[in-house]
Amino acid sequence: MRGVYYKNMKWQTTIKVDKKQIHLGTVGSQQEAACFYERAAFMCGREPDFELTAKEKDELSKLSWDDFLTMTRSAINSKSNLTCL
């Protein structure tokens, strides 16, 4: 699965943008990591591997890349309010 890997007993998700590897975060499951990657891929103008809902696409299209990264990392770090799943 692109952008998702298992390292140090945790699932990590990254995406490459303009030849730079961007670490999105470390989560507890492969499904969570894939979800964050899919959203990041959509934000970069790529076709996600899995279909996002129209509501998700609408919400994401309102964000800038920096706002998306801030929101994603905040959700991952708080762990109490993960927006993926």
Q: Can you write the helix and strand succession as a string?
A: EEEHHH
Oligomer: single chain
> Main sheet: which strands, in order across?
1-2-3
Topology, number of strands: 3
Model regions low in confidence, pLDDT < 50 over at least 5 residues: none
Coarse structural class = alpha+beta
Query: Mind telling me the C-alpha Rg?
Result: 12 Å
How much strand content do the residues show? Answer: 15-25%
Q: What would you call the shape?
A: globular
Mean pLDDT: 87
- Biggest sheet statistics: 3 strands, antiparallel
What does it look like?
The chain is of the alpha+beta class. It has helices spanning 30-43, 54-61, 65-78, and strands at residues 4-7, 10-17, 20-27. A 3-stranded antiparallel sheet has the order 1-2-3. The relative contact order is 0.17.
SSE layout and pairing:
Elements: E1 4-7, E2 10-17, E3 20-27, H1 30-43, H2 54-61, H3 65-78
Antiparallel strand pairs: 1-2, 2-3
Give descriptors for this structure:
3 helices, 85 residues, alpha+beta, 3-stranded antiparallel β-sheet
Summed up:
The protein has 3 helices and 3 strands; from the N terminus they run βββααα. It is of the alpha+beta class.
